[in-house]
Design goal:
With 144 residues, the chain is an alpha/beta fold. It has a single domain, classed as 3-Layer(aba) Sandwich (Ribose 5-phosphate Isomerase B, Chain: A). Helix content is 48%, strand content 15%.
Length: 144
Amino acid sequence: MIAIGCDHGGFKLKGAVIDFLKQNGYEVKDFGTDSEQSCDYVDYAKKVAFAVAGGECEKGILLCGTGIGMSIAANKVKGIRAAHCTDYFSAKYTRMHNDSNIICIGERITGAGLALELIKVFLETEFEGGRHAIRVAKIAELEK
């Protein structure tokens, strides 16, 4: 199950992402928002981050105007490694090396076609483990 959430700045992109996920066989849990009416990104980052950290959802996708606010807010939740991605390399390597569990994308800076490519590589890329697992463990230690 993939958790998805957005604020008003990511609302248009969210529909395209949900359609893409469903067409590719993913189950989706939509945490909102449900319109372009102004709202606080933190509220949706929190919902998705807790769903992922708590094991209700395997990974998460957060969308806002830039992706930055969502990533800052989501990373405050213990167990979350949210990555703001704007290019293919970052989306792939944040999974391979950081075992990131949430991707954050900005609708106002990333076109829909690229956003779907980033999400695809993020969801399909496995964590390498090894020396990277040691580093991820050190990140978890910071949360204590």
